[in-house]
């Protein structure tokens, strides 16, 4: 991993229960200060990947190097002491992530208390101001503020220990379209202000196109395509990526694409199909796809895709 890289994931495997892999052999690299989008259908492994990065999911194989340290080689106690100062996560439901029994001010002070540090009231007030929140909000409970305010408080809590990397799991979920633009502008500002690397998980492809520089497409726990976001949106190489992007709405009639309808449902992670995992639903599948699993291959400009018959 180079000094410019915030995160290097190599062959990551995350398994639950009876060894069922939710993420299987993922390779990703994210540079400091960059935004990487992760997309895919529900059950593709996006949130599991995010949870592994903050120590909330077991690493069954491979490695995650975060700023030069291998998380798999660290003890649980070491991860609990070290990780919060380097990576934090914003959960999908900001209100549910805040305790209903704590005032927002106490919730913001909690990271200091957990790690045995004196509560820095000035830092809390400065961070609230930077996020456009009044200091008076500290006396309120989660149910007494709007969803947008709760979302910013959750971000403020995540930034309290000054991490270098932020994971945003569906950060625009539940927001009206009219509010999404303001929120995305806000995320761009805090990224520049705090120098954050961001892993941006979303089903909203329009949002991903606007906010990320790099993109990774997951299917059934594996990466099927990754590279520059604009390049992938302009010319997807994998049939699954093509199908996802064809479903993205657009108001410009000249930019509308013919919708690709995928047949069937995603298989169970515990019983993936042989060969290419996507072949039962792929309109281009051939016999080779049923028997031989494609490996990620590289082309110019850092594009990688796993397909025997790329577009």
How would you describe the overall organization of this protein?
The model has no long low-confidence stretch (mean pLDDT 88). This protein has ten helices and twelve strands. The chain has a single domain, classed as P-loop containing nucleotide triphosphate hydrolases (Rossmann fold), CATH 3.40.50.300. It is of the alpha/beta class. The strands form two sheets. Strands 6-7-8-3-9-10-12-11 form an eight-stranded mixed beta sheet, sandwiched between helices. Helix content is 30%, strand content 22%. 37% of the residues are buried. Helix 3 runs parallel beside helix 5 (147-159).
Number of domains: 1
Main sheet attributes: strand count, strand direction, barrel closure: 8 strands, mixed
- Number of DSSP E strands: 12
Structural class: alpha/beta
Strand content: 15-25%
CATH second-level architecture:
3-Layer(aba) Sandwich
What's the layout of helices and strands?
Elements: E1 5-16, E2 20-31, E3 35-39, H1 46-53, E4 61-66, E5 69-70, H2 76-82, E6 87-90, H3 104-114, H4 121-130, H5 147-159, E7 165-169, H6 177-194, E8 197-201, H7 205-211, E9 214-219, E10 222-228, H8 229-234, H9 239-246, H10 287-291, E11 297-298, E12 304-305
Parallel strand pairs: 3-8, 3-9, 6-7, 7-8
Antiparallel strand pairs: 1-2, 1-4, 4-5, 9-10, 10-12, 11-12
What can be said about this structure in brief?
Helix content is 30%, strand content 22%. By secondary structure, it is an alpha/beta fold. Helix 3 packs parallel to helix 5.
């Amino acid at each position: 991993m180079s000094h410019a890289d915030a995160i290097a994931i190599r062959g990551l495997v995350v398994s639950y229960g009876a060894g069922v892999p939710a993420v299987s052999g993922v390779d990703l690299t994210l540079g400091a200060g960059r935004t990487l989008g992760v997309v895919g259908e529900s059950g593709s492994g996006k949130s599991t990947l995010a949870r592994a990065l903050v120590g909330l999911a077991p690493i069954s194989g491979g490695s995650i190097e975060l700023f030069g340290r291998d998380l798999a080689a660290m003890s649980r106690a070491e991860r609990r002491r070290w990780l919060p100062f380097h990576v934090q996560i914003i959960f999908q439901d900001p209100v549910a992530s805040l305790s209903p029994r704590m005032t927002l001010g106490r919730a913001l002070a909690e990271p200091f208390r957990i790690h045995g540090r004196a509560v820095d009231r000035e830092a809390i007030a400065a961070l609230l101001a930077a996020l456009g929140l009044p200091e008076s909000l500290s006396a309120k409970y989660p149910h007494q503020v709007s969803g947008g305010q709760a979302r910013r408080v959750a971000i403020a809590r995540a930034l309290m220990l000054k991490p270098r990397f932020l994971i945003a799991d569906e950060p625009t979920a539940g927001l009206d379209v009219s509010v999404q633009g303001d929120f995305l502008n806000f995320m761009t500002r805090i990224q520049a202000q705090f120098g954050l690397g961001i892993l941006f998980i979303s089903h909203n492809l329009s949002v991903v196109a606007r906010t990320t520089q790099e993109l990774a497409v997951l299917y059934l726990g594996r990466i099927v395509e990754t590279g520059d976001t604009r390049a992938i949106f302009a010319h997807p190489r994998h049939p699954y990526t093509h199908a996802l992007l064809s479903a993205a709405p657009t108001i410009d009639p000249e930019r509308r694409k013919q919708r690709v309808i995928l047949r069937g449902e995603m298989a169970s992670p515990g019983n993936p199909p042989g060969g290419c995992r996507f072949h039962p639903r792929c309109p281009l599948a051939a016999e080779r796809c049923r028997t031989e699993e494609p490996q990620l291959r590289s082309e110019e400009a850092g594009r990688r895709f796993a397909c025997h018959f790329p577009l």
